[in-house]
Amino acid sequence: MNEEQVAKWINELIAIDKLHEFYVSKEWRHLRKAVLSDCKDECQVCKAKGFYTKANHVHHIQYVRKHPRLALSKTYIFQGKEYVNLIAVCKDCHENVCHPERLKHKVVEPITEERWE
Ligand SMILES: [Zn+2]
Ligand SMILES: [Zn+2]
Fold first, then answer.
1. Distance (Å, rounded) from C-alpha 19 to C-alpha 21?
2. Beta bridge partners of 91
3. How far is the CA of 115 from the centre of ligand 1 (A)?
4. What is the tens place of the pLDDT at every residue in 2-40?
5. Residue 88: helix, strand or coil by DSSP?
6. Å from CA of 109 to ligand 2 middle
7. Which residue range is the domain that position 78 belongs to?
């Protein structure tokens, strides 16, 4: 599949609200495995901070919904330079560092004594 075909496929899945089909596809599972092994199963965000955590997620730097054509690309070109598009990360970094936008929905209400008065 070239980028054009990937974009078409992803856009179709988004249109019918079935993007999860991408994440269970043979193509993605294959690529995901390759990225994890390229990164030696190490979380790249933790690694940058100097400690080791096992990675079990692969994150798209260029979000799939925003850049469907890059869904199956390990790298992308921006202004003539090549950048990494897929990185291995641990669950915590994936949620907290890669997708802070998702955290906004999780409103943690502090449980204080006053609440129960
Ligand atoms: Zn991490
Ligand atoms: Zn992600």
1. 5
2. none
3. 34
4. 999 999 999 999 999 999 999 999 999 999 999 999 999
5. strand
6. 25
7. 3-116
